[in-house]
Amino acid sequence: MQEVESLAEEVALVIIKPDGVLRGLTEEIISTFCQNGLELQYSQEINFSKEKARRFYSNKLNEPDLHQKLVEYLTSGPCIVLILTGKNTNARVRNIIGQIDSDSKGTGLRGKYGLNPLQDTIHGSRDMEEFYQSIEVLF
Question: Which pTM does this prediction carry?
Fold first, then answer.
């Protein structure tokens, strides 16, 4: 018998960051999520203020140089906020987004579109806790 948790739909937050928006990747990125069985529930273009960007990246406060670079990056242009739903959404979103690091080109959407480890084109919530923390900062 399946666990109840596996039947429940989750919600995930995705942010297409300024480099992705400015390079015209928004529709292709959204299509990738939808082709993988996730449903787009919400989409909005936003411009991060420095204060919101600082709060969004508050988990990097112990790395002041990186924190400042991330804030500058997130405020460098428009972003697109997406809310996606489906089963195991956060895990699926993280898998589709993939990773990018200094040792390799990367995987998933970050590997395909990321310019470097800092300009990684896309953010996705890791779990429901991060989803709610991000929503609180954004709205």
Answer: 0.89
